[in-house]
Structures are given as structure tokens and as C-alpha cells.
């Protein structure tokens, strides 16, 4: 069983739960990808065979079976879900699947009532990007420090992402 496939499936299931069980297609697709990658269980095959518009109640039941059969451990509680999803996004930055700025935009567009301090720090960095954009717009592309400051902010966010992944919990 591939650890990468298992992790990708877990990520998809957690994000689906975090999004209040919206976009059932995402978990069906993740199940199909997990099967192709070598994971297997009867419930995983059932999940992969569901239609995207399958009612959430049925999806949740099948996902519970997948979790049990594969021994997956889903985070429990809003704080744990939020931290897991933020770490998933941070991992994407470090893997090069998204940019640091895209992480800040994601953090802003996915704000919740009780976000962690870590989440809010990523949101705050978006405003720093916005200030750099305003400077460039006002002074033009010839501002010599714009590229340097943007690169420094990118590097700072990568360090924040790495630190977030290294924290226990």
C-alpha cells in the first residue's frame, strides 16, 4: 500500500469534511486515484463507483467504512480539521504545487470564525503582497526593491509553511 496514495486519500477526505461535505466528486475522484495507486478495500471500491451527485448521507456512510477498512485517522474537532487543512496547503507550497501568494489568497478566501493564529498569519501576509502591488502600481515596475521584497516575502512564507509542518499535533 502506497503511503503517498494513502496520504492523498486522507487529505481529500479531510478537506471534504472541512468543506461541510460539499463536492462529493472530490472524494469519489480521490477513491479512484487511490485504487489506481494500489490501495484497495471493498468500501474504497464502493466509494470509487459512486456518482458525483450521490447524497451526502450515503457518501458519509461509505467514507466511514473506507476509514475503518484502511485504518485512516481523521482529525476530530474543528480546530484539528482546520490545522490539518492548513498544513495540507502549506505542504503544497513546499512541494511547488502552489505559490506562497496563492497560499495567502487561499487562507483569506477560506477564513472561518475561529481561525488559528497560524491561519491568520497567512492571511496577514496577503496584505503585505497587496502593499507591494500598490507600490508597483504607484511607482511602476521600475521599483528596484519590489522584486526583492516579493522574493523575501515568498521565502518568509515558505519558512512559515515549513515551521507549521514541523510543529507537533
Task: Please give a structural write-up.
- The protein has 169 residues and is mainly α.
- It has two domains: 3-70, no CATH class; 78-166.
- The chain contains eight helices and no strands.
- The protein has helices at residues 3-18, 24-36, 42-48, 56-70, 78-94, 100-109, 117-139, 144-166.
- Helix 1 packs antiparallel against helix 2 (24-36) and helix 3 runs antiparallel to helix 4 (56-70).
- The protein is elongated.
- 18% of the residues are buried.
Defining key terms:
169 residues; 2 domains; 0% strand
Q: Summed up, what is this model?
A:
With 169 residues, the chain is an all-alpha fold. It contains 8 helices and no strands.
Q: What's the structural domain tally?
A: 2
Q: What Rg do the Cα atoms give?
A: 19 Å
Question: Helix amount, in percent?
Answer: over 70%
| Approximate shape | elongated
Separation of the first and last Cα atoms? 24 Å
- Helix and strand element order: HHHHHHHH
Contiguous low-pLDDT stretches (5 residues minimum) are: none
Helix-strand makeup class: mainly alpha
Say how many strands there are: 0
Largest sheet descriptor: none
- Tally of helical runs: 8
Strand content: under 5%
